Amino acid sequence: MSGNIVTSSTPALKADVLLEALPYIRRFVGRTVVVKYGGNALAGSSDGDALSLFAQDIVLMHAVGMKPVVVHGGGPQISALMTRLGKVTEFRNGLRVTDAETVDIARMVLVGQVNPQIVAAINVHGPLAVGVSGADAGLIVAAPRDADLGFVGDVTSVNPSIVNRLLNEDLIPVIATIGSDASGQAYNINADTVAGAIAEALGAEKLVYLTDIEGLRRVVSDAASLIRQTTPDELDALMADGTIAGGMIPKVESCVKAVRNGVGRAHILDGRIPHVLLLEVFTDDGIGTMVHGGGE
Amino acid sequence: MSGNIVTSSTPALKADVLLEALPYIRRFVGRTVVVKYGGNALAGSSDGDALSLFAQDIVLMHAVGMKPVVVHGGGPQISALMTRLGKVTEFRNGLRVTDAETVDIARMVLVGQVNPQIVAAINVHGPLAVGVSGADAGLIVAAPRDADLGFVGDVTSVNPSIVNRLLNEDLIPVIATIGSDASGQAYNINADTVAGAIAEALGAEKLVYLTDIEGLRRVVSDAASLIRQTTPDELDALMADGTIAGGMIPKVESCVKAVRNGVGRAHILDGRIPHVLLLEVFTDDGIGTMVHGGGE
Amino acid sequence: MSGNIVTSSTPALKADVLLEALPYIRRFVGRTVVVKYGGNALAGSSDGDALSLFAQDIVLMHAVGMKPVVVHGGGPQISALMTRLGKVTEFRNGLRVTDAETVDIARMVLVGQVNPQIVAAINVHGPLAVGVSGADAGLIVAAPRDADLGFVGDVTSVNPSIVNRLLNEDLIPVIATIGSDASGQAYNINADTVAGAIAEALGAEKLVYLTDIEGLRRVVSDAASLIRQTTPDELDALMADGTIAGGMIPKVESCVKAVRNGVGRAHILDGRIPHVLLLEVFTDDGIGTMVHGGGE
Amino acid sequence: MSGNIVTSSTPALKADVLLEALPYIRRFVGRTVVVKYGGNALAGSSDGDALSLFAQDIVLMHAVGMKPVVVHGGGPQISALMTRLGKVTEFRNGLRVTDAETVDIARMVLVGQVNPQIVAAINVHGPLAVGVSGADAGLIVAAPRDADLGFVGDVTSVNPSIVNRLLNEDLIPVIATIGSDASGQAYNINADTVAGAIAEALGAEKLVYLTDIEGLRRVVSDAASLIRQTTPDELDALMADGTIAGGMIPKVESCVKAVRNGVGRAHILDGRIPHVLLLEVFTDDGIGTMVHGGGE
Amino acid sequence: MSGNIVTSSTPALKADVLLEALPYIRRFVGRTVVVKYGGNALAGSSDGDALSLFAQDIVLMHAVGMKPVVVHGGGPQISALMTRLGKVTEFRNGLRVTDAETVDIARMVLVGQVNPQIVAAINVHGPLAVGVSGADAGLIVAAPRDADLGFVGDVTSVNPSIVNRLLNEDLIPVIATIGSDASGQAYNINADTVAGAIAEALGAEKLVYLTDIEGLRRVVSDAASLIRQTTPDELDALMADGTIAGGMIPKVESCVKAVRNGVGRAHILDGRIPHVLLLEVFTDDGIGTMVHGGGE
Amino acid sequence: MSGNIVTSSTPALKADVLLEALPYIRRFVGRTVVVKYGGNALAGSSDGDALSLFAQDIVLMHAVGMKPVVVHGGGPQISALMTRLGKVTEFRNGLRVTDAETVDIARMVLVGQVNPQIVAAINVHGPLAVGVSGADAGLIVAAPRDADLGFVGDVTSVNPSIVNRLLNEDLIPVIATIGSDASGQAYNINADTVAGAIAEALGAEKLVYLTDIEGLRRVVSDAASLIRQTTPDELDALMADGTIAGGMIPKVESCVKAVRNGVGRAHILDGRIPHVLLLEVFTDDGIGTMVHGGGE
Predict the structure, then answer these.
(1) Superfamily (CATH) of domain B28-292
(2) Which CATH superfamily is domain C27-292 in?
(3) Which tens digits make up the pLDDT trace of E184-222?
(4) How far apart are CA D167 and CA D173, in angstroms?
(5) Nearest residue of D to residue E59 by CA position?
(6) What does the DSSP 8-state code read for residue F214?
(7) Which of D10, D87, D143, D210 has its CB surrounded by the most CB atoms within 10 Å?
(8) Are the Cβ atoms of A180 and B120 closer than 8 angstroms?
(9) Is the pTM of this model over 0.80?
(10) ipTM here
């Protein structure tokens, strides 16, 4: 089922694996887990297999009583459509200048292309997932970051009631990270930041980023310096000294903020490992980098 | 507020209008009204004003306790993007051959462009509307109509539970008419047909089509033959003798089927009249064509 | 329907009036509005028409989701029956000495004559209204004001649970302002005072007095000095300097106290204007005197 | 407490009485008992003592979990006020011709005088009783019996929802037997008949008439022929042969109809015996006449 | 029914007894009453009659809406089985050394012999009682008192949720006073102490000890010094000066602690009086010793 | 954790096992599974390990949302205590003559010894299990099978409401198979039969017997004739021709009756295999004998 070639398990091995999962199932039942699934993961999957494995993990979490919430972006897919439509993007300080047409394209891709793909992959297992846009029922209220950048937005507030309602009905919300302001204008927002804000607003137990790195490192060049467990304070230091930089910043900042504001744990996992989500949640194996409150 | 220049009302006139609305408010409180809003209406609106007036009507219905559900298509918008992307459409027997890329484009436009516009127009009045795709939580299950046409689908079944859940939470569902099969494959489906199927599945009190005609006529060429009230039987006859033809067929067939299967009344209204929905629902004025069960 | 001769509205005018009402409907849905309806209004109505218009307004408020509560007195009706029964009333300091027979007559008139008339006028529109006496389920607990006056009572406490229960069942309570003490003895109580106390106990959004004046004036003799909006502090001053006096005192004192204790707004309206309640609640027209907390 | 001079009980006697009540308490918990309390009982009570004992019984039934409903008339009280007001009554075939003023007086007395007295007597024990008129929330819909009699009404239908709502809130409804038609016109209705109709509509377990006779007799002149238990069929025969006649007819007809339509048992008790209700309900003593379905 | 030979009551006497009970029924409806029933009472009853009378009292309390909870020990029964099994008990400082086999025997007797007898006696009246062990759903968590004594335990904490759940379902919990630790090991615990701890954890209105003495005395040798009412402070003094000693200590300490921690009243009653529980709860007769907070 | 020495799983193997369980988890969530645990299994376990493994399986089923119910007997334990107490058992036609003392001993062992052991083993994982006797709240009503056998009972009826209440509260009922009649007399009943009757009364999805055989065979002497799947009809034939005989009869008869009366599947498993319950429920491996309705 998982697509891997493995030696088949004996009954005793099977029992062991199931019992290894027991304490995690009991700990997380009824708890909300926000998972950020990147557009890269989706784009990099030549045939949808990675998405299918991810969907299995989400469905298993749901089946044992957790409340998974999927948050996604779609940068590569937006760029691809822009190119097809002959739009050229201007950048200022590394941020894309987003005019009205660009934000409409971004919304179209996120809400109309990436989101339905994830919903469909989950719903192969039953009518479980529901696509949600940040504009639905006022979920994500945004404001412009900088007049020169156009419709690039920051999160002003999160009204998670639509997500909570869906969770109460035992559904799996899949959230496209579009924000809107009071006039109904859409904004493009960093999906990593949105995932953290939603985890906070929901009082989630876990916030998980699926990335294309093995985890954070204490020394960038040293694979052996992989950080297994860390705290917001250490991460602040690593960002301050430049060890953590670039595209990891929004993820790590969100982990730090979320854990400081009540989210139980945040994780940076290697989304390239098949079923990494399932292994992290249900087994004793240490995977990727885990951020917890310092007091533990 | 409505954008029309009118002689201002006296208090007595105001009281009369409000009291004229009273019996309709009382009759329809708690009842579901499915409104099909066409892609044409949206496309024809140069500046969004028509959409804004429509949104006001939906919000007023909601405010007095009705449960409006908006169903929409987006044919012109799909064609426009196809053209921009250089896709040429082949037609067979008047139906567009829909390959995998075409259905993905259709989904992207309906779910990611038209739907968010309608949601945004309503949510100017508060966090009321929620976009729903037919693929969410198994809402619209579809099957291919004809192997030669590719991903053109017929409605196999409607599972309205996600819509009912949103209505129970006092939200306004806005439904993009994409269907999906058990494998998660998307299908393009006639939006008029979907609107009727959803009205039936919800046991709606009213099914309303906003069109660009004044209403149905008994004699095509005679504006004076406008049909105010009619029955499924008469409509069957008018379709059989060719009086009703072309693009009106799916609408009229859906009205006939819906009224026969328990929907209270179906209406074909002229969406070009400002606030036509509000006038139909809350005033004694006769507007467009109303279909009711013959026994009344 | 309203009994007024008016130029008939055009559809555009109708739409405008309905949309003018929209923000008020949305603001007040689910909110409690306590309306004091005077015995004078009822007595002055030669043919019940005023009562019928009033009932329409109450039913419209109810239809759009507000929770109206009617509180009434019946001084003229009590006096009329006393006269027919040959009872002569003694006054001390302007207050009627109320012996046991007088309070029984008062109760009989309020609970058995005036209250059923109002209930009947509302229930022409459906089984909506329920008559409530202040003695039901301990609603109004009273104590004697002055031993010399007999059974003239002050409100000791209000137990609004019976009213809340009826409101929760979507019914319209019509309250006769009789109080009772722990022994079951009835007391005659000023209806204006009771209306204010009930509005406070219910946490009402609005308290409305229907009177036979246009509103309060800053200069008694100057119709142009009509007060459109005022605050408890200004009203205190106007009572202190004698501008407000006589029968208006209990109404104004109750407005002041209610607004200071959490009622959103209090209104003194001219009950002689047809549908004045409806105009005040659902239109932008300024009517009568409105009391709000000074901080707005 | 009961006002009787009795030899004081020993502890053992007390235990016996309480345990004798146990099976009745368990049988009737949660069950509805409709008690018709006559205007005669109230009028005959020189000092309210009988009413006070009756109120104790109702409160005890309520305290152990039954759902008592009191229904009352007030013929003697209506006549007394008519006399004081100088109204002369015309009779036709033994029925009072009821003009508009007469029915207003009847309503005023029943709703405004008798009903509050009973409510007050019960509420000495706490905020338990709520007065209800047959016009409240459409409880008793009436139609004229005979055009020549004016506003003498027959019960057209009973809508018990307001009574059920009060019972669900653990309150004790006290019902004045005024009916009303769709226009809001009041009617005077036989209170015995109303009691039976309400018991049926509520699916009551018991219907109890408190009268001023010891019970029904098989031979009118023979006190020893008191009927302890009987069936609808036997009562039909006794009415057919004239053994039961006059004012007992509406009571007996109501008992017969109620038991045939699902009310568990109907009782005709001697309301002159102190605490007769309590003795009937909670003890093994046989009191008055009990009507049950023939099949037992 | 009660098994006593009494002069039969007159109807008036019966009414008096029932009405004497009324205020107590109203005061205690919905309130929890914890009753400690001793193993001695059960053992001393040659033919089960005492248990049967006790069960009647519990069922009557339940029937009128109270929530009785029975807590029992079983010392004599444990000793009897130990003797039959040839086990000899060693005592240290008056406490039985409890090895693993002894605690298993104790659990077997309490849970498997005494508890089912009480449950059965109650369930003669209907499916009301449910046996509960302190090990069920973590009800009583215990820790060893003293390593030398083996499995003699002290109450560490009470988790009353299982008892509350049964009470919410209108059942009568009968609790065997076995505790357990996190490993599942059982402990023998003083039943008097457990009864007090459970009353506290439930926020009971009353805690009642059925004993074989008439009540507490201020002077041990003087029957006339029976204490009718007392306070925690006085009881502290009587324990300090040795007036209260021996087996009464755990009972009195529990009464003192319970009343100080929110239990309304605690009672020490003479369980040898037939229906003593019923007399205490439902009559004005003063029985045994009542402990209340000093402030009354 | 399971106590078995196994080669440790790779992450990929772990993922496979968890995903193999997914469809079973989804199929059985919210479903009731009745598991008969034999006294033999408990008695044969020298150190409680088998019980501990069984408890893990039950807790895992509970953790993923199933509703397990444990039913147990305790024949060997009863015999052991009888021997210690010097009681000699008489047998007639293979059934033990059960006098009053014997049934008291049986109840004491089942309710007070075996039941608490199972409850304790489960509650090591949290406050999940609650011991229930068949006498609690009228769960198992019994009648004597044969006057000569004394208190050997047959199941007259099952009132599962106490079990359903505990399941609704997310607890795990552990049922001792003692029945009782209306007088409270206890009866010893075949535990296999009780398990089937309870599964039927609960409308269970599964009924599982843990035995000390590998499964049923078509030919007694041929291990290769193990029956993997069968139907009630085939089992009737195998009982008729004597292939199935002896102590298996009550189990097989109960399986047949349960499946015919709506229980989804019945299983006869080898309780000697560690975690056999878990392997049967969560893996694709075929274990023991499964009985299903013939129509599949």
Answers:
(1) Acetylglutamate kinase-like (3.40.1160.10)
(2) Acetylglutamate kinase-like (3.40.1160.10)
(3) 999 999 999 999 999 999 999 999 999 989 999 999 899
(4) 7
(5) D22
(6) S
(7) D210
(8) yes
(9) yes
(10) 0.91
